[in-house]
Specification:
By secondary structure, the chain is of the alpha+beta class. It is about 30% helix and about 35% strand.
């Protein structure tokens, strides 16, 4: 697949509609995922509580990263959703989206925290290579599945 990526924050309602439609195709068996998109994620992006960047190829979303300030932990940014279309994986796009989040958050946050399904070994390996470490394992969204919570220092804490 030949690529011509455009990467940007959500600019307008058209982008928001594109993101919403994309997210609905990206469920990884999270309970109530579709409800979360419509009742929490999209409204919080509209209110600028969550930040979303999208990667487009020929006008279609092929990746996203959504993050927010952690609701309880100070100076901690929480990655809420990252998806990369299978046709454009292994090209550094996920790494770039993480680095863009870091650049936009520089000076405001010390830690980035993410959670992933326990069985997502390829994602876990990517996060290890990117400097994350495992903090703990817990059933965050369902008693039937463990999530791995991982953290990365964004700058050295004095």
């Amino acid at each position: 697949m030949n690529v011509n990526f455009t990467i940007r924050q959500i600019d307008d309602l058209k982008d928001l509609r594109l993101l919403r439609a994309w997210l609905h195709t990206q469920n990884l068996n999270y309970p109530f995922y579709d409800d979360w998109i419509d009742s929490t994620c999209i409204p919080e992006i509209e209110k600028n509580y969550k930040t979303a960047i999208i990667a487009l190829n020929d006008g279609k979303i092929v990746g996203d990263f959504i993050w927010q300030s952690h609701k309880e932990l100070p100076r901690t940014i929480e990655g809420k959703n990252m998806r990369i279309h299978p046709d454009v994986r292994e090209r550094g796009l996920a790494y770039f989206l993480f680095k863009q989040c870091e650049a936009e958050s520089k000076g405001h946050f010390d830690i980035m925290m993410v959670d992933i399904p326990e069985d997502q070994q390829n994602v876990k390996l990517f996060l290890f290579r990117y400097g994350f470490r495992i903090l703990y394992h817990a059933p965050l969204y369902s008693n039937n599945r463990l999530e791995t919570v991982m953290v990365k220092e964004l700058r050295k804490i004095a």
